[in-house]
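Suppose you are handed a protein chain with no further information: no name, no annotation, nothing but its sequence. What can you learn? This example shows the usual starting point.
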Amino acid sequence: MENFNSKLYEKYNNLKKRKFAEVEERNQKRNVDVAKYQSAVEGLIEDLKNENDKLRAEMVSIQEEFHECQQLLLQERHKTKMLSNGVETLKHLLLQENNDDRAPLMSPHRSPIVRLDDSNEFLQKGNMEGTQNAVVVKDASIITNGMTNEKTIMYFTQIIA
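A reasonable first move is to predict its three-dimensional structure. Written in structure tokens, the prediction is:
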């Protein structure tokens, strides 16, 4: 019986060793798989961090561009307001001159014209939107040529490019 017990105990130990080896082998495979997944996840996290940094830099760039556009818009509004004020001043001066002379300044096409002394250009009223340079009128006066009865507006300007 003792022989039988020893054989049985030996089989039990062999089975226990084999099961332990199988469990150990599964644990090693699981550890290898976990290590693979962990390295893959770390790589993905690093990629997402890089993409996040890139998107943040792009967002800052877009915000800076937006700020520049806002500044340009404010400058353009200021220019437009100054031009409107200049146009109103010129209209007021022309109206005063026309009321004084009772003879409006007219071109052959029957639209009022303004002769610019420094450039010798003629601008017709209603055609001023096509001009390329923005001009802010600081002071203006109307001078009538006694011989030709041509009315000329003399003004001091600041050109805003």
